[in-house]
Amino acid sequence: MSPQASLTLQYLIVALAVAVSAWVVFRKQAPAAARRLRIALALPLVREGRPAWLRACGRRIAPMPMAVADGCGGCNDCGPRDR
């Protein structure tokens, strides 16, 4: 392997490690923004007419659906409390 190819490979590995690290920190610090970003990236991929492999990628990128609570989807702390 030439020195130029070796250096390029090294830079690619470092860039991948930095990108993964940045994504982990982003998800920890701003989970709602990370969820919105994943939805925005996945929506164009899962549309009808896209190839099956592209829709499968979109489904992998999309976050899990959030569980909806009773009627309002709120905090489940509605109604009278037993004291």
From TrEMBL:
The chain crosses the membrane at residues 6-26. InterPro entries: DUF6587. This is Uncharacterized protein. Pfam families: DUF6587. Keywords: Membrane, Transmembrane, Transmembrane helix. It comes from Lysobacter hankyongensis. The lineage of its organism: Bacteria, Pseudomonadati, Pseudomonadota, Gammaproteobacteria, Lysobacterales.
